[in-house]
Design brief:
The protein is mainly alpha-helical. The chain has a single domain, classed as Fumarate Reductase Cytochrome B subunit. Strands 1-2 form a two-stranded antiparallel ribbon. Strand 1 and strand 2 form a beta hairpin. The longest helix is centred in the middle third of the chain and has 30 residues. The chain is globular. Bound molecules: protoporphyrin IX containing FE (HEM). Protoporphyrin IX containing FE binds next to helix 1, helix 3, helix 4 and helix 6.
């Protein structure tokens, strides 16, 4: 029977499913953000892509928490990182996780303190306040900028996996996640 958890030789099917599912969803989220940034306000493609920014962003926030918990539970028996490059990889992954949580959290905090309230998949999560709570809005001023920093980190992550691990070192790292 296939083992669901990670082992020192390879990532298990749940880790791989979460990893590639998140990759796909983050690509869609960055596409929505890029269209918002690059296209004029009344553009129909911009509107369509923007229409899922809140829902997909919230979904990603929940999946990241799930993935983080699953990663921590698997930490003692997943493929290890060694040497300087390994330490840099651990630091890079920690930064990725931190931003994957902070970026959506800044906007969700703003929604929690807003005068409009916030619904997710038709369910009211935050009721509207009579007036906006200023300190809850403040971190969201950095949401867009931090989102782009996250996009750059993701690009770096892909470059390391493909160029360093696959083409230069040929150490099987990418295959362990590809399955
Ligand atoms: C991991 C999840 C998310 C990522 C990667 C992300 C990324 C981004 C990026 C890069 C921008 C800048 C677009 C531009 O320059 O025009 C942006 C803007 C925005 N996002 Fe997100 N976002 C996420 C989650 C969310 C969530 C959960 C919400 C709402 C609940 C949200 C609401 C907004 C809004 C209103 C803007 C436009 C105003 C601003 O830049 O702050 N986003 N997002």
């Amino acid at each position: 029977m296939t083992r669901l958890t990670d082992t020192p030789d390879r990532f298990g099917p749940i880790t791989r499913f979460l990893h590639w599912g998140m990759a796909l969803l983050f690509a869609a989220q960055f596409l929505s953000a890029a269209a918002h940034w690059a296209l004029p306000r009344e553009n129909a493609i911009r509107e369509t892509l923007w229409s899922y920014q809140y829902t997909l962003g919230t979904t990603l926030f929940l999946i990241v928490l799930l993935r983080g918990a699953w990663g921590l539970a698997n930490l003692p028996h997943r493929p290890a990182h060694s040497g300087r490059v390994g330490q840099a990889a651990v630091a890079g992954h920690a930064a990725l996780y931190a931003l994957m949580i902070i970026v959506p959290a800044t906007r969700l905090l703003a929604a929690a303190g807003s005068d409009r309230g916030f619904s997710y998949l038709g369910l009211q999560i935050f009721a509207p306040h009579e007036t906006e709570i200023a300190w809850m809005q403040a971190p969201s001023e950095l949401h867009g900028e931090l989102g782009w920093v996250l996009a750059l980190l993701v690009l770096g992550h892909i470059a390391m996996a493909v160029i360093w691990h696959r083409l230069i070192q040929r150490d099987g790292t990418l295959q362990r996640m590809a399955g």
